[in-house]
Every structure is written in C-alpha cells, then in structure tokens.
Amino acid sequence: MRSLGLCAAVMTMCAGSAPAVAETMLRIGTVLAPMDPMGQGLEKFKAEVEAATKGEVRIEVFHNSQLGDTTEMIDQARAGANVGTVTDVARLSSFVPSLAIMSAPFLFDTYEQADTFALSADYLAWGDALKEKSGLMMLASNWYQGPRHLLTQKPVSTPADLAGVRMRTIGAPVWIETIRAMGAEPTPMAWGEVYSALQLGALDAAEAQPTAITGAKLYEVVKNVTKTGHIQLVTALVVSAEAWDQISPENQAIVRDLAVESGRYASRLTIELGEKSLADVAASGVSVSDVDLAPFKSAVAGVYDMLNLNAEVASVNKVLGR
C-alpha cells in the first residue's frame, strides 16, 4: 500500500510539473515583408495572445507568402487547416456580398472612420454570417494597410491616361470594377508575382499602398506613383473556423480583443511609415505626384450601383453620422 501511495504521489508531482499543452496552434501568414506594419502587428499579436492565454493558444507567423498567396491561405483555412491570414475584405464578399463595402472606392476618408464602422453592429453581423457561409472566422477587420495609389510607367493625370493599361489589382469584383471604371484593364495576379511581371512587361501598372511599394521594392520597376488613394485598404484577420472552435470561449474573447488592439497598433505604424515610404520612393528617382481626384471620383461613381452596395453605403453613412 505504501508503494502504491508513493507511485500516486510521484504521478501527482509529475502531473503538476508537466508543461501546459497548447489548446490550439494558429499558423497566420501574410504576403508582406516582416517589417511591413502588418507583419509587425502579427508579431505583437502572437506575443500578447500567448502571454494572455498562458500558452493555451499559440501562434506561428509566416511572412513573404511562405504559406502561399492570400487566396491559397484562405482556401487552406476553409478546408479546416489551422491557418489564418490578413486579407482585404473584398475577397470575402463572394460569401457575404455586403463585406465588399470596406473596399469601396473613395468611401472612407480616414482610418478612424473605417475602424469605427468595423466595430458597428451591422458589420459584426456580416462577420458572423461569414463564419456560417465560408468556414472562416473574422477576428478583427481594422488592420489598415494604407491608401492605394497608382504605379505606372507613364504619368497619369486623368482616367483617360489609363486607357489600355494592364494594371494588377486584387481579384474581387469591387477592386476589378473600380480599376476598370478608372480607365485601366484590371489584371488580377498573386502579389508575389507583381515585381517580375512589371519588370518583364507582362503588366503595365499596379496599385498598392506606400509600405507595400517599398516592402516589395516596386519602385525598382515603375517610373511613376500617382497618389489617388482610390481605396483605403482596410483588411481583416481571419482564421479557420474549425481551428477557432477548438479554443475555449474565455480564450476566444481574449484573442478577439487582442486582434482588434493589434490591428490598431499595425494601423498606426502604417500611418506613421506611409509618408516615409513615399519619400523613400521619391528618393529612388520615381516621380511621386498628387492629382486632381475629382475626375477619378466621378469615374467610379457607378460602382456602388453596379455591385448593389447602396444599402451598405447608407449603413456606413449612418454609423459615421454623415
């Protein structure tokens, strides 16, 4: 009996000293460079989630398309892999069409406006619908990557200057129709292929936010950056719903709160580094210019009607009190 008691005591001691087993592992990827604000935000998110959940939720971060292009990572997550990514919300609109409003042209004037709307009841309800319809869980939708500008080989002053220009854009309807309305030929392509496509002439142009221009060194393969800011790139952190459901409700609340706070951290970095990025682009010899936005705004005015987003525009205006 003493022997059995000793064994029990040893087992109890071993159990007490055993390391906690991670409740789940989330592998979160991005197509951007590690020093991009999104990459820095994800590293902060990783550290704070692991600390706050006492290691019960662990996160691995993969930069520079190590887990594939954004679409490939989304497909992996939908298939049930413990994968997540930071994605433009328009890619998710094939499941919940209303989500396309976050990428609508010339809709949000500031990051603060987008952040406010991303936490509104209407928007959060669309996020809930996304889980049901796609197998993706949206943790936060306030990860701001900056204003999208035109990257071209020839100067651009009006939409007419974009006639016949093959321009890389994101392969979602609101992006495609916005670029087409602005006068160019929208050409969806994986982000990791854009540099070589511009270099070899397979593309004539692209559109990107300042930190991505420097992160991908696109200033080496274009001659002009025109500051249209036609879309404010507000992105979402999404993960596999199957992996998400393995996390306890208490830890889910922690993870979602930290996703919002890390999104704000990354967004502040985006804003701080954006002007420096453009200055660096100009210093490299690329022409960086402002332009009269009125013709571009007029050109894209029909996109809301075309994609049936007028009700969503009204929701944005109501939330923002305008």
From TrEMBL:
Annotated GO CC locations: outer membrane-bounded periplasmic space
Keyword Signal: yes
GO annotation (BP), single: transmembrane transport
Keywords attached to this entry: Signal
InterPro entries: DctP_fam (IPR018389), TRAP_DctP (IPR004682), TRAP_DctP_sf (IPR038404)
Annotated signal sequence range: 1-22
Gene3D superfamilies in UniProt: Bacterial extracellular solute-binding protein, family 7 (3.40.190.170)
NCBIfam families per record: TRAP_S1
Name of the protein described by the UniProt record: C4-dicarboxylate ABC transporter substrate-binding protein
Organism: Aquibium carbonis
